[in-house]
Each structure stands twice: as structure tokens, then as C-alpha cells.
Amino acid sequence: MPEADAHPDTRERLLTEAIDLIERQGFCAFSYADLAERVGIRKPSIHHHFPTKSDLGVAVVRATRTWVEGLWRDLEREHPRVPDRLRRLFAMKRGMASGEGCARICRVGALQAEFNALPGPVQAELTTLSGASIDRLAAWLDEGRRAGDLVFPGPPRAMAQVVAAAIQAGLQRQRCNPGETLEALLDQLERLLGLA
């Protein structure tokens, strides 16, 4: 019987499981042994796909960037008006917070929380992804304000940072303080942006 690591989709399975581990416990908290057990392969086999954990981290962030960029494009295509895009994005975050007793948080937020402990190449990729996400959100906020659909103080980039930080912190706080729900935080963000 062929070993699981001989399958062509092993690399993708490794990425999927690594993302799940990052969202549940963080990048620094899992080992290749944890990953090998989840995927059903030998630990040395992971090195064929990702010679170092840094290589794995870079691949996770690049895969995340591809996914995030696709999500932004889909939201723009499906929701021409910025308020509708933001409502959909907030609904997705609400869904993340409601499942599995908040065992998972946004992988970008999880990685950002560990930034100083991450290998340099992972830090560089994460900085690029984080900057691109804030740029896109700032562009949406600017577009929405120019159209008269959003009202908020200050520059769009600063408000984009507020929105992103609030959502990430809300997910993390709900994990350890279940009474502090992301729902209330997102409702407040909607009022702040003039969506409510």
C-alpha cells in the first residue's frame, strides 16, 4: 500500500492542516510531529515538501494572500456598494466567532500576535499581506465615503486599521472572554461607519 506522503495532494493537505493548527494554537505552538500525525505521514516526509518550518510558514502566508485577494475580488464583484461588502465581510467574521466555541481565530491575526517569534521570511510575507489588506480596506472605505454611503472621522487608512485591529482583537478576546462577543463589537463598528 502506498504511503500517504506519495499522494500528489500531500502538500495541500499539509498546508490545510498547518492553517488549522495556526488558527487553533498558533504557528510556534505546533511541530512537524503534530502535522505528520494529522496528515498521516512520517515526520521526515514533511521535509520533502517544506524543508524548514520557515518554508511552511511562507507557503501558508502566500496561500492565505491568494485566498484573501480572491475573497476581496469576489466581494467587490458580488457587492458593488461598499456597505454591502462590509456587511458581508462582517457576517463572515461573525460566522468564524460562532463556531467551535471560538477555538479558531483569523490566521493572519494569529500570526501577527506571534510576529516577533516568526522566522524572518515569514515576517516579510506577513508584512506584505497585512499591508495589502489594509490598503484594500482603506480603498473600500474611501470609495464608500466618497459615494456618501459611509461616515467616519479621519483618513480611510486609519479607519481601516481600526476596523482590522478591532476584528482581530475581538476574535482573540472572545476566545478567552466568551461574554465579550464579537457580535457587539461588529455592531459598534457598523454604527461607527454609519452602516447601522
- Determine the strand fraction and express it as a percent band: under 5%
CATH domain fold name: Tetracycline Repressor, domain 2
End-to-end distance:
58 Å
- Largest beta-sheet details: none
CATH C-level class: Mainly Alpha
* Structural Rg: 18 Å
Helix content: over 70%
The helix tally amounts to: 9
Q: For this structure, what is the CATH homologous superfamily?
A: Tetracycline Repressor, domain 2
Q: How many beta strands in the DSSP annotation?
A: 0
The domain tally reads 1
**Residue runs with pLDDT of under 50 for 5 or more positions:** 1-5
Q: How confident overall, as mean pLDDT?
A: 90
Order of helices and strands: HHHHHHHHH
Class based on secondary structure composition and strand pairing: mainly alpha
In the CATH hierarchy, what is the architecture at level 2?
Orthogonal Bundle
Summarize the structure.
This protein is mainly α. It has a single domain, classed as Tetracycline Repressor, domain 2 (Orthogonal Bundle). Helix content is 72%, strand content 0%.
Report on the structure:
This protein is mostly helical. The protein has a single domain, classed as Orthogonal Bundle (Tetracycline Repressor, domain 2). It is built from nine helices and no strands. α1 packs across α2, α1 (10-25) crosses α4 (53-78) and α7 (120-146) packs across α8. The radius of gyration is 18 Å and the shape is elongated. The model is unreliable at 1-5 (pLDDT under 50).
